[in-house]
Amino acid sequence: MTAPPQLSPRLRKDLSRLSPEVATVAAQTIQENLRPCLLVGSERVGQAPLHRGVLGRMLGLRTDVPRLALLDSKLGGTPYTTGPMGEGRWFLGQLNFAHLPTSVPGLPRQGLLAFDGVRGCSAFGLSFTSRWYPRPSEEEAVPARDVSRFGRFEAALHFRESWSLPCWEDLMALLPEDAWELSDDIDEWQRESGMCDERYHRLGGHRSFGQDSLCVFEPPTGLSKDFREYEQVFRLNFDNAADFTWGSNQVYLLVHRDDLAAQRFDRLAFAVAND
Predict the structure, then answer these.
(1) Tens digit of each residue's pLDDT (9 = 90 or more) over 45-65
(2) CA distance 91 to 88
(3) Model-level pTM?
(4) How far apart are CA 274 and CA 10, in angstroms?
(5) What confidence tens digit (pLDDT) does each residue in 19-39 have?
(6) Is residue 2 part of a domain?
(7) Number of domains observed in the structure of the chain
């Protein structure tokens, strides 16, 4: 795992203006609450989209075919499935944990997590659902026919080790009250150190700052409706490579802490926040 980022000179300078006791506690609190995560980038695979709209089809514009392997981590392309996906689903992407770095505590070491969009099922206008395969294999795969894809392009995913801080509400509860004025410095430090790079999706780590103000939260049937009882598995921003967006919103895949402890990923919650 990469070493955690050191506090920025500006943040240290502003800490020095506080009392020595408060400055020491604040610096230790920030450093001790850094949690490993993976930043997830995407790279477009083909030059042409996988599907065209009505006008594109009328004009006979070229389309591409999926190229990535069935079990690859990706956005778009051919989904891994062992049964019919069901009507009304739009394939968004999948993560193969066996291919990922093993430096983030809590994430599974194997298994494939696929996630799909379902239009018109929430106030946001889009709901989400997931499919969990503990031991995926090409021998057990079923051809996914007439796949609807959320993004127009296929994109390969790559992963970079990074760190995260608790969302602002949680961090403020940990810091001494006199240190709350450091909020702008902490935000700037996260951006400068690459922890808050909005070009990337994110796997693991603390709940993202956007979860302070969720506009949609969809818990699994029978589980708690309090989003604070869940840990963040995956944060999805817009994606230029796969060519999909939901404006300034971010979509979160969450797992209940009890399920995380049991390494159970077959019933995830979904949330949406306008960051």
Answers:
(1) 988 888 877 777 777 778 888
(2) 10
(3) 0.90
(4) 29
(5) 888 889 889 999 999 999 999
(6) no
(7) 1
